[in-house]
Design brief:
Layout lengths: L24 H6 L8 H15 L2 H10 L11 H23 L5 E3 L3 H9 L5 H21 L1 H8 L2 H23 L2 E3 L10 E3 L8 H18 L5 H20 L3 H4 L26 H6 L1 H29 L12 H17 L5 E3 L3 H6 L6 H12 L4 H4 L4 H4 L1 H14 L8 H17 L2 H18 L8 H14 L1 H8 L3
Helix pairs in contact: 2-16, 3-4, 3-5, 4-14, 4-16, 5-13, 6-13, 6-14, 8-19, 8-20, 8-21, 9-10, 9-19, 13-14, 20-21, 21-22
C-alpha cells in the first residue's frame, strides 16, 4: 500500500553477519551475503510480502469497477483482476532485478480512486488510463533530470503528511459507502445530511453484517500483529459470505458487484482484454488542456510522495540506507517507480506504486531484490486463479479500506506541527476536503493555496518555494475556471 504507514508485522528480525564470499552468481548479483541474508530468507520474505499485499488483486478491481466513465461504461471485473495481478507481478520483478531492494509494487490505493471517481466520469476509460501513463512518463523525466527531488522539497513536510491522511480518509469513506454501512440520502429527502447509517438510519441485511464482522476481525488481527491480517480478513469473510448467501438466498443486487458463490471452476484463462487499451491524449479533448494537466498532476502527486516515503521507510527498516538516509541504486529505484506508474496505466490497472506491506518481507529477513522475484512470481501465478478472486463481495474486501485508512493516519498525523498554524490550517483543509468533497484534487489544491496565503500573511512569503507558487497558480485557475471562462467570454 502506497503510504509510509506502519504495517502490522512483527518486529524486524536481526540479520546474521554477512559472509565474506558470495556463494554463486545469484548471490553476487543480488548481494545476498553482503547484506547479511540468505536465499531461503529472501524467498520466505517474498512470500510474506505477497500474503500481506495480495488483497490488492481483489480490492483494486472493486474500486475501479465501481466507477463509470463519461459514457456509462464500467470495466469488467475479471479483466481488472488479470490486469492488476499482471502489472503487480511485472513491476515487482522489475524493482527486484533493477533496483535490488525488497520493495514490491502494485496498484496504489488512493490513486485508483482518483482514476475511478475523478478522471473516468469526465472521459472514457482509455482516456483516463492514458493520463496515468502520462503521469508515469513525467515521473521518469523528473527522475532523469533530477527534478523529482526538487519537486518533493517544494511541498512542506506537514502538507505531504496531510495529503496522505486525506487520501486515507477518502478511501475509508469509499469503504463505508461501498459496503452499505453508509448510504447517500436521496435528494428527495430535502435534508441537510448527505449521508446516513445503512437504510433509513438502520443497518439491514446480511451483507452489512459481513462488513461489520470483517472490520472487527481485521482490526483484531492488526492489533495482534498478525502477518497478512488484511488478506486473512478478506478470505475469512468471503467464506462466511458464501455460506450466508447459499443459506439465505440473498438477491445478487444485495451484494453489489460480486456475488459470493462457488465458481464453476477454480482455474481459468486470464482475460487480457484491457491491456494496452489506452488513449494517451484523448482525455485533453474531453476536459481541455488546463483541467487535463491538473488531472495528470493529481495522479502524479497522489503517488509521488507516498512512494518516496515508502522507499526510504522500508530501506531504513531493512538497514540499507546510508548516513544520509539514501538507498543504493536510488536513481534506478525511482525510475522503476515511474515505470510502474506508466505500466499500471498501460495495463488499465491504474498507477502501480511501492507498497509499505513490503515491511512484512523485511521482517522475515528479506534484504535484496530476490525477495521481489518470489512476490512477483506469486502475483503472476494468480493470473490462472481469476475465478477465485471474482467471488469476493465488496462487503468482505472493504474493511481493508478502513484498516488502511487507519494505518495511514496513525503513521502521519503525529508528524504534523499543529502548533504552527501556517502549516496546521492547510493540513486541516487538505484532510477534510478530500472526503467531504469526494475529491483528492480539491484537497491538495485547498491545502497548497492555504499554505501560500497564510505564509504570506505571516510575512514569511520568501520561505515559499517558487515551484510551489507555480503549483498554487495552477490550482487557483482550476478552482475559478468557470468565472475566468465567463470573464474571457469563452463560455
Amino acid at each position: 500500500m502506497p503510504t509510509s504507514a506502519t504495517s502490522p508485522v512483527d518486529a524486524q528480525q536481526p540479520s546474521p553477519p554477512p559472509s565474506s564470499q558470495p556463494k554463486g552468481a545469484l548471490d553476487r548479483y543480488f548481494r545476498i551475503s553482503e547484506r547479511g541474508s540468505s536465499i531461503s530468507r529472501e524467498l520466505r520474505g517474498g512470500l510474506a510480502t505477497f500474503f500481506a499485499m495480495a488483497y490488492i488483486v481483489v480490492l483494486n478491481p472493486i474500486i475501479l469497477g465501481a466507477g463509470q466513465d463519461k459514457f456509462g461504461h464500467q470495466l469488467d471485473n475479471g479483466q481488472l483482476v488479470t490486469a492488476t495481478a499482471l502489472m503487480a507481478g511485472l513491476s515487482t520483478v522489475l524493482m527486484g532485478v533493477i533496483g535490488n531492494v525488497p520493495i514490491a509494487c502494485a496498484a496504489g490505493l488512493g490513486i485508483n480512486a482518483v482514476v475511478s471517481l475523478q478522471l473516468a466520469p469526465k472521459m472514457s476509460w482509455p482516456d483516463a488510463m492514458g493520463m496515468v501513463v502520462l503521469a508515469g512518463l513525467v515521473l521518469m523525466v523528473l527522475v532523469a533530470s533530477g527534478l523529482r527531488q526538487r519537486v518533493m522539497d517544494a511541498i512542506p513536510g506537514g502538507l505531504r503528511r496531510a495529503i496522505a491522511i486525506g487520501i486515507g480518509l477518502f478511501i475509508s469513506l469509499i469503504g463505508l459507502v461501498d459496503s452499505g454501512f453508509v448510504t447517500r440520502n436521496p435528494d428527495a429527502a430535502h435534508t441537510t445530511v448527505p449521508l446516513g447509517l445503512g437504510q433509513g438510519g438502520q443497518l439491514h441485511g446480511w451483507p452489512v453484517l459481513v462488513f461489520v464482522v470483517g472490520l472487527a476481525l481485521t482490526f483484531i488481527l492488526v492489533v495482534r500483529k498478525t502477518r497478512g491480517a488484511i488478506l486473512i480478513g478478506i478470505v475469512a469473510m468471503t467464506f462466511v459470505a458464501i455460506v450466508i448467501n447459499s443459506l439465505a438466498k440473498i438477491p445478487g443486487t444485495g451484494w453489489g458487484l460480486s456475488v459470493p458463490q462457488v465458481p464453476d471452476k477454480i482455474v481459468g484463462a486470464p482475460d487480457f482484454g484491457l491491456i494496452g487499451h489506452i488513449s494517451l491524449f484523448g482525455g485533453f479533448r474531453e476536459v481541455g488542456l488546463l483541467t487535463g494537466c491538473l488531472f495528470v498532476f493529481t495522479v502524479l502527486l497522489s503517488g509521488f510522495f507516498d512512494a518516496m516515503g515508502t522507499i526510504i521507510g522500508v530501506g531504513e527498516e531493512a538497514g540499507l540506507t546510508d548516513e544520509n538516509g539514501q538507498l543504493p541504486n536510488m536513481g534506478k529505484i525511482l525510475m522503476v517507480d515511474g515505470l510502474a506508474v506508466a505500466g499500471g496505466g498501460l495495463g488499465s490497472a491504474s498507477a502501480n506504486t511501492c507498497f509499505v506491506e513490503s515491511t512484512a518481507g523485511v521482517g522475515e529477513g528479506a534484504r535484496t531484490g530476490l525477495a521481489n522475484l518470489m512476490t512477483g512470481s506469486l502475483f503472476l501465478l494468480t493470473l490462472v486463479f481469476t475465478p477465485l478472486a471474482t467471488v469476493v463481495p465488496s462487503q468482505a474486501a472493504t474493511p481493508a479500506l478502513l484498516v488502511v485508512g487507519f494505518l495511514i493516519m496513525a503513521a502521519n498525523v503525529k508528524e504534523i506541527d499543529w502548533s504552527d498554524f501556517t502549516i496546521a490550517v492547510p493540513a486541516f483543509l487538505t484532510i477534510i476536503a478530500m472526503p467531504f468533497t469526494y475529491s483528492i484534487t480539491n484537497g491538495i489544491g485547498m491545502g497548497v493555496l492555504a499554505f501560500i496565503l497564510l505564509r504570506i500573511a505571516d510575512r514569511r512569503g520568501r520561505e515559499i518555494p517558487w515551484l510551489l507558487n507555480v503549483v498554487g497558480l495552477c490550482f487557483l485557475v482550476y478552482f475559478f475556471l468557470d468565472p475566468i471562462e465567463q470573464m474571457l467570454g469563452v463560455k
